[in-house]
Amino acid sequence: MSSNDLKQMSQAAGQQRKFVTLDKLDIQILGLLQEDASLPIRVLADKVGSSPATCQRRIADMRASGVILKQVAIVDRLRVGRPLTVFVSVELDKQNAALLRAFEQKMSAQEDVMACYEVSGEFDFLIIVNAASMEQFHAFTREVFSSNNNVRNFKSVFAMNCSKFETRVPLPR
User: Fold this and answer.
1) In whole angstroms, what is the distance from residue 70 CA to residue 113 CA?
2) What's the pLDDT tens digit per position in 79-138?
3) Nearest 5°: phi and psi at 146?
4) Using an 8 Å Cβ cutoff, are 148 and 155 in contact?
5) Residue 118 is inside which H or E element, if any?
6) How far apart are CA 121 and CA 111, in angstroms?
7) Structural domains of the chain, ranges and CATH numbers in brackets
8) Contacts of 13 (CB under 8 A, 6+ apart)
9) 101 or 12: whose pLDDT is higher?
């Protein structure tokens, strides 16, 4: 994931984005693309009962409006040697807009960070980290959290099993 992709996602999470109105055709196209983004445009058009040109234009419009952020392959973390998933709650020592932004930028630059959410409650951020081993995760925490003077506290919760992982966003019917 590029830093530009992370920046877009961070902006989406950090501020309210303009709601985009989707019609029935847009929703059908999105639903199929969320299941299999590699569908040939002709097959997609047949499935939604439209022309390939219309589908291409709709997809381009949804990209331009930010509805479609990117198309990716979902990789099995276990098969590529990254079995450790950790949910890390981070409490910052001081908070202001610049410090929050700096922390988000630091997390965006970390390859092991899969997601970074600013949250309400006891902690300031919830981060999802993926690592090859406990040793690698330990090194990550030393480098990223312990060396950051603005991190007051962090707590790690280790995933023991993943019974569901979904990237699909539920759409109106």
Assistant:
1) 18
2) 999 999 999 999 999 999 999 999 999 999 999 999 999 999 999 999 999 999 999 999
3) -65, -35
4) no
5) strand 113-118
6) 26
7) 3-64 (1.10.10.10), 84-158 (3.30.70.920)
8) 117, 118
9) 101
